[in-house]
Design goal:
With 409 residues, the protein is α/β, with parallel strands linked by helices. The chain is 40% helix and 14% strand. Strands 2-8-7-6-5-3-4 form a 7-stranded mixed sheet, with helices on both faces.
């Protein structure tokens, strides 16, 4: 190929990539790494992962798998022993009538979501995404050639989707509803009654599939119970994909194991797609996940108590800081903080805060605290704090935020 011909190939990207945005969370993590490399001592409240080490018995299972030679390909949908453990988890903890054939294992929860949407969406389809949302939901929808229909859910509704808002958003083109509880970025948790009310709406629209992202299932506070949508309204279970994984519950984000259960026609399509994409997830990680699901569960309870203490410390501090307001989250390890009263202020360095992204940028540059601006999650002016770090660091971060806010003019 000559130089003229080869130039025609340069920059020819998939059309859907042009509208896709990089993850705001990872962009902030990159900025934190750059500042730390330059010598700054930054407290990062941006990364959405537990700060605990993976439990020892899970790590030991992975080492045993390596030494036992379990280092080869597995079935595309996951090794049967793990899928049986996943099915048992759904029966035991979620009341879902699931056999091992009704499950799929993927390389992380994000792949479960991507596979499901990529296998079912076509041009003109719509996906309802309540906001605030995890930053990847609308991007994945767009990458699959469909249109995200964002429904703003503000603090008046507890950042939760209401039945009326859902009913109004559904059209003949609606293909999916994505529901995340507990929520990233707000920590909002849907009650059994709230899920049943949403289920009543969905029963009127049998063409709508449901994706329940339950990845923060085990981080529900104040003694409240956790419920998933197919459990709350079993009549929509035949068109519901319930997604979960080991990343948040067992501090296994880097192990990259997610799983799901749903109708077999959908799982078959997801498996077909995965077979031409990544094939089976890491065999070592699958053995570690098996140990997580079948082994001692004490870690989950201890982690939940720790996160609940941190939440209480954080919320009390933020609500005592001028210009900030923080509703108490019911789960996960995020707080979604209103910074409306900071907008229009000027920092000591002369930065005018016109948006929540300006607030997040100034906190990093002038207070050495990293947060993620709320508009990246579909609702501003807020910022998200991930309180997945030790209490001393959390206290120091809150003190730095308080000094920053008091110094504004």
């Amino acid at each position: 190929m000559n130089a003229i011909d080869s130039s025609l190939a340069i920059g020819r990207l998939n059309v859907h990539l042009h509208s896709a945005q990089p993850s705001a969370t990872y962009r902030m993590m990159d900025r934190v790494a750059a500042r730390r490399a330059a010598g700054a001592k930054v407290i990062s409240l941006s990364a959405g992962e537990p700060d605990f080490d993976t439990p020892v018995h899970i790590c030991d299972a992975a080492v045993d798998a390596i030494r036992s030679g379990h280092t080869r390909y597995t079935q595309v949908a996951g090794m049967r022993a793990l899928r049986e453990a996943v099915a048992a988890k759904f029966r035991r903890e979620n009341g879902l009538d699931v056999a091992w054939e009704d499950t799929i294992v993927c390389s992380g929860g994000k792949q479960v979501i991507f596979n499901a949407l990529a296998a079912t969406l076509n041009a003109g389809d719509e996906v309802i995404v309540p906001a605030p949302y995890w930053v990847s939901y609308p991007e994945i929808v767009q990458l699959c050639g469909a249109r995200p229909v964002v429904i703003a859910c503000d603090s008046a509704s507890g950042f939760k989707l209401t039945p009326d808002a859902l009913d109004r958003a559904i059209t003949p083109r609606t293909r999916w509803l994505i529901l995340n509880s507990p929520s990233n970025p707000t920590g909002a948790v849907y009650s059994l009654q709230e899920l049943r009310a949403l289920g009543e709406v969905l029963l009127k629209h049998p063409h709508v599939l449901v994706l329940a992202d339950d990845i923060y299932e085990h981080l529900v506070f104040d003694g409240a119970g956790f419920f998933t949508l197919a459990q709350a309204e079993p009549r929509i279970a035949p068109r519901t994909l319930t997604m979960n994984g080991v990343s948040k519950a067992y501090a296994m984000t880097g192990w990259r194991i997610g799983f799901g259960t749903g109708p077999r026609w959908l799982l078959d399509a997801m498996e077909k797609l995965q077979g031409q994409q990544t094939s089976g997830a890491s065999s070592i990680s699958q053995h570690a996940a098996l140990a997580a699901l079948n082994g001692p569960q004490d870690f989950i309870r201890e982690a939940r108590h720790s996160f609940e203490r941190r939440r209480d410390l954080l919320v009390a501090s933020l609500n005592g800081t001028p210009g900030l307001r923080c509703d108490q989250p019911g789960g996960a390890f995020y707080a979604f903080v209103s910074c409306k009263d900071l907008i229009g202020g000027t920092t000591p360095a002369g930065t005018v805060l016109r948006t929540d992204e300006d607030v997040a940028g100034a906190l990093l540059e002038e207070a050495n605290v990293a947060v993620v601006h709320g508009s990246a999650f579909g609702l501003g002016p807020y910022f998200r704090i991930a309180y997945a770090l030790d209490e001393k660091s959390l206290h120091d971060a809150c003190s730095a935020i308080d000094r920053f806010c008091k110094a504004l003019s």
